[in-house]
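ABC transporter ATP-binding protein: structure tokens wanted.
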Amino acid sequence: MQIPLVLHAERLTKRYGRRTALTDCDLRIPRGHVVGLVGPNGAGKSTLLQLACGLIGPTSGTLSVLGSRPAANAAHLARVGFVAQDTPVYASFTIADHLKMGAWLNPSWDLALATRRIAEVGLDPTQKAGRLSGGQRAQLAMTIAAAKRPDLLIFDEPAAALDPLARKGFMRSLVEFVGELGASAVLSSHLLSDVEQVCDYLVVLCDSRIQIAGPVRDLLASHRRIAGDPAKMPATMSAGIEVIWAEHGHALVRGDAAVRARDAEPVTLEELVLAYMSRAAGTVTAPRASAAVSR
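Answer:
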């Protein structure tokens, strides 16, 4: 039985003039996950999410979202909720005006959900959006996206500019919305603490390429940290262990043999992500791992 995919990319490439934002990206993400999309600034995260929303088109390759071309029609647009990095709202509109606009634009609008969530986070419907704090604007933007009752919620670093307390509240609301709607979600962030808090699936994007992707639990289980001299570690070891990163007498490696190694230690999510980012930056010579890891 084929598992339905929320995102499916094959050799997806996007160029802006001479600059390449994404290069030959292959990605298969099953539905039902909260996906953490991580990587350094300029890695191509926003480009991938804008492609998924249909805001821009690919230069080459293919991308399907929920089984269809992004923004294929009005019905497909209604299945995707998007919160951009600057959590855009209309400064001169009140919160109530935003909810009315949401109802007018979206046939599946859930006014009861929107009204309840606005009350739960303590927002005054009569207040103008231009006077809201950053955290309040983020909560409003997320409520509008979720009240569409989409099958997929996409967040492009929406909490990057929030203080720690507001970010914690935003992440809590994200989890609650995903659970209430039964939706999948993709969260782009360069803050690994956010990903650890809410995501069960990981995509690492660096240097315009997908470095690795898969369920967080499986990725952590298949990687280990071992002691050894980096100068004596080849890119691929004879025991079926792939060296992802090595320095200071330790290496982060991948493979079943690594898991069974007597001197192997578990890795953290931060160690795993930084290892793949370091390899992409050229600080270790190793072959690229397949990014089409899914369950």
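The first strand starts at residue 5 and ends at 16. Residues 5-211 form a domain with the Rossmann fold fold (CATH 3.40.50.300).

Cheers.
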